[in-house]
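Batch manifest, entry 17 of 40.
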Amino acid sequence: MELLIFGYAGEKMLVFPTRGGRFYEYENLRLIEVQREKIEAGELQVYCLDSIDTESFYCFWAHPSGRIERHMQYEDYILHEVFPLMNAKNPHPKVTAHGCSLGAFHAANIAFRHPELFNRLVAFSGRYDLTWSVEHFRDLFDGYYSESIYYHTPTHFLPNLGCEDRLQKLRDMDIVLTIGKEDPFRHNNEQLSDILRSKGVEHEYYLWNERAHQGRYWRQMAGIYV
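Output type: structure tokens
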């Protein structure tokens, strides 16, 4: 696995690429440039991850159980390899999970599953239920469902989350969700926002004009919310 690190100190930000994106995508989309001032001032250190989406959610020749299993191995990689690397390079206690499009799913999923590790979540144009079919976006598990899928679908497991310790950690997290008014997953975002509100988890939810699912929108969002 490859990754890119920008900056030398400050709050650490873990960035997940869009669907099938690579570790250099965030820089190529000029999103690093938007945050250049903070990075050079030692206020922000950015870790841009690679993805294995074509081996997990978008590996359609594999059985859906194998797709979610591969995703779970990806999460293990982040928890047991990337986090130790971040902690070894930078002792700053604050960590942000961030991503756009499918990267927003990855960021939200890991932050909601492990709220003790994250202080912020910044998710742009996300899809938080991979079992949904809307427009040309298919159910990524082809109707298959399991406990593993349940626990990796934020809008499924969060409504039943009753552990007060974990809920308090979520309530302590700074959460920003954005989506375009014409984005097909707007309703899914509103569903997630309603669930968080029902659990007493304060957050910011912003609607942007049009579909807002492109780099030029994400650069504007990053300049405001990151």
